[in-house]
Amino acid sequence: IIGDDGGAQVTYDGGDTWSTYHNQPTAQFYRVTTDNHFPYRIYAAQQDNSTIRISSRTSSSVINDKHWESTAGGESAHIAIDPNNNEIVYGGSYDGYLTRLDHSTGHRRAVNVWPDNPMGHGAEDFKFRFQWNFPIFFSRHDSKKLYTASNHLHVSTDEGHSWATISPDLTRNDSTKLGSSGGPITKDNTSVEYYCTIFAAQESSITEGLIWVGTDDGLVHLTKDGGENWTDITPRNMPEWMMINCIEPDPHDAATCYIAGTKYKTGDFNPYIYKTTDYGKSWKKITNGIDREHFTRAIRVDLTTPGLLYAGTETGMYYSNNDGEQWHPLQLNLPIVPITDLALKNNNLIAATQGRGLWVLDDLDLIKQSLKSNGNEDILFKPEDVYRMDGRQNKKPKGAGKNHYSGVNTYYYLNDYDSKKDTITISYITTDGDTINSYSTHSKEKTNKLKDLMKGSNLHNWNMRYPNAKKFEGMIFWWGSLSGSKVNPGEYHVSLNINGKTQDKSFSVLKDPRINISDADFVEQTTFINSVNSKVTEAHEAIIEMRKIKAQLKAFQKNHKIEVIDNKISEIDSTLSVIEKELYQTKNKSGQDPLNFPIKLTNKLAHLNSLVQVGDSRPTKQMYAVRDELTGMIDAQLAKYFLIRDEELKVLNNLIRENVEDFIKY
Asked: Which of 44, 10, 11, 9 is CA-nearest to residue 28?
């Protein structure tokens, strides 16, 4: 067994062959970012392996090899995605190597700021010192401005064809730290060890040209005019030679910024997070509640809630809901692992780890809503708005990544719960007040029964569908769906009823932005599916009734031998059997039997349901034609059944009353 930067591998033949890395979440990532694609993609560089671009969710049940690919840059890269075209990606590497990759063509080119190869040289020999992990980012105000950093800040407005240096040396430029690496026997000059470099930089999302810069030798600088003038704003109470690992301009206040730094390389494992609210004139250390040996690498501010902060440390996650005054663990199911970077996207928190891959925390609104509760009451949380799209979550994905959940996740908190006394009901309702589907702890339908409830936090996942068509015992279909239609895009409500007391929250079902389909087409598709399921349900309920009637007839014949009644029973039983066999193939007893025994009317009609739900689109004219033809044939059989049920059974019951009454003895 070997373990290296890619993971672990096993050989059973003395090293001739080895097992794969692609069955374990062991990637060691440096930085993480996202794009504006739908669904958004995650970009990160992994130690001793490629950079990657991976889908945050898929239309299947897992996220696996086919959902990721290599992207620009090398193992240590910061990655920047062109905001105007997410297929164009810039990525760094050591030696100041910077590449531009067009994913649409596969074309790649080098766009180094200063393409002077530093291999074998100490840092003192070079005009620009690029760190192993040098920053790259696009302006949040001018999508053509691409920034990167050495010991200076540089900007390009022509996709890296030319670069302007817009800062002086913003590091300590200490000559004693710029010599060759390694020795005394052999040196190790790959530029990986270069010091006195810019390690973190970012532009304010509020004010154009307001750029904050931090270095690996412990300095912080600010420009308010895009690099014309710079101010040293290094916190006075911060230990010297701090590596500024992360800089986070506040998205709610231009004067506020946060920095996370580390000194673990000098044996100091304390967390260091600082905040300024006056453009760096003063700083406050904000690490209360973080373990004193959990040094911090990343700090992020929630995009919608001022004062809600997230911190990634050497041994896990923390959050603060009071602007850093107090921190709390946010570990949940995240392994105890170094968090190297954090990103926020669409109300998700993405964590890059050093050894356990990438992790996503969905629906940050749950944290925000829970902060408003005292914890001593029943709570229905507002569900996150969801997209009407394919995909589901395999709970045991083995070597693959766990996919985003499908449907609506309804979280609720029960202050107390007694399964014997309490009745809990969750209903999903249209804005007109019509109940689409309802689930209860006391439901007689298995598919609508709430299970495994407990005191505390609970989750119900709704598949966004109307009720399924009726199924009967032993039914075997070949490619025929009973699934209810998905609800149309729009606003809906969920209600939580606890022993008669109801809470209500609204949420939206959103259209998949990749699909060109009108609201009218959605309505037409839903109406078609509901009409198909309604007729299938009617036919299957008739089959269930017919089987009950036949069972009663058989029981009567067993106990009573009266010729006139027996003849009538045989006549009715035979007719019911013929009707059922036209509606459903009664010879099918296993999944492969339809290969020998042709499917019948309800299976054929349910097949239309399968076809129209292949994707979001209105039904074809041929689907309507086949539906109408099959529906007419089903109606003809149902008419025969209703005649027997409503007329012939009356005749039979009269015969029974006339002939059986005298059999009762006292």
From this structure: 44
Give the long-range contacts of residues 614-623, CB within 8 A, separation 24 or more.
615/515, 616/388, 616/512, 616/515, 616/517, 616/521, 616/522, 616/525, 617/517, 617/521, 617/525, 618/517, 618/520, 618/521, 618/524, 618/525, 618/528, 619/524, 619/525, 619/528, 623/528
274-283 LR contacts (CB < 8 Å, sep 24+): 274/235, 274/238, 275/323, 275/324, 276/233, 276/235, 277/253, 279/222, 279/224, 279/233, 279/255, 280/212, 280/220, 280/222, 280/231, 280/233, 281/233, 283/235, 283/236, 283/237, 283/238
Read off the tokens for 466.
Answer: 């109307």
**CA distance linking residue 656 with residue 272, whole number of Å:** 91
Alpha helices (runs of H) in 41-148, residue ranges in sequence order: none
Structure tokens at 175: 């000559």
Q: Measured between alpha carbons, how far is 229 from 515 in angstroms, rounded to an integer?
A: 48
Give the model's confidence band at 665: pLDDT under 50 very low, under 70 low, under 90 confident, else very high: very low
Q: Are 332 and 344 in contact (CB under 8 A)?
A: no
Query: What is the per-residue pLDDT across 521-549, written as a single tens digit (0 to 9) for each?
Result: 999 999 999 999 999 999 999 999 999 99
Contact criterion met (CB below 8 Å) for 154 and 92 = no
pLDDT tens for 243-285 read 999 999 999 999 999 999 999 999 999 999 999 999 999 999 9
| Res. 467: pLDDT tops 70 | yes
> How far apart (Å, rounded) are the C-alpha atoms in residues 579 and 637?
6
CA distance linking residue 408 with residue 405, whole number of Å: 8
Report residue 399 as tokens.
């070597």
Residues whose CB falls within 8 Å of the CB of residue 439, separated by 6 or more in sequence, listed in order:
425, 426, 427, 448, 449, 450, 460
Residues 575, 576, 582: CA angle, nearest 5 degrees: 95
Which neighbouring-strand residues pair with 44? 32, 52
The closest of 312, 316, 356, 341 to 133, measured between CA atoms, is 341
> What are the C-alpha distances in Å from 314 to residues 197, 215, 247, 271, 294?
22, 20, 17, 9, 5
Round to whole Å and give the CA distance between 18 and 2: 10
Name the nearest CA neighbour of 261 among 250, 246, 276: 246
Other CB atoms within a 10 A radius of the CB of residue 226 amount to: 18
Whether the pLDDT of residue 663 is over 50: the answer is: no
> Secondary structure of the chain: what % helix, strand, coil (to 5)?
20, 30, 50
Q: b/e per residue, 172-189, with b = 16+ CB within 10 A?
A: bbeeebbeeeeeeeeeeb
- Whole-angstrom distance, CA of residue 257 vs CA of residue 205: 11
- Beta-strand ranges (E) seen in 489-570 are 490-498, 501-511
Q: How far apart are the first and last CA of the chain?
A: 86
Residue type, 316: G
Q: Rounded to the nearest 5°, which phi and psi values hold at 580?
A: -60, -40
The rounded distance, in Å, linking the Cα atoms of 544 and 289 is: 63
Cβ(363)–Cβ(347) below 8 Å? yes
Q: Tell me which amino acid residue 255 is.
A: A
DSSP states along 464-497:
SBPPPPP--TT---SS---PPPBPPSEEEEEEEE
Q: Which residues of 291-320 are buried (b: 16+ CB within 10 A; e: fewer)?
A: beebbbbbbbbbeeeeebbbbbbbbbbbbb
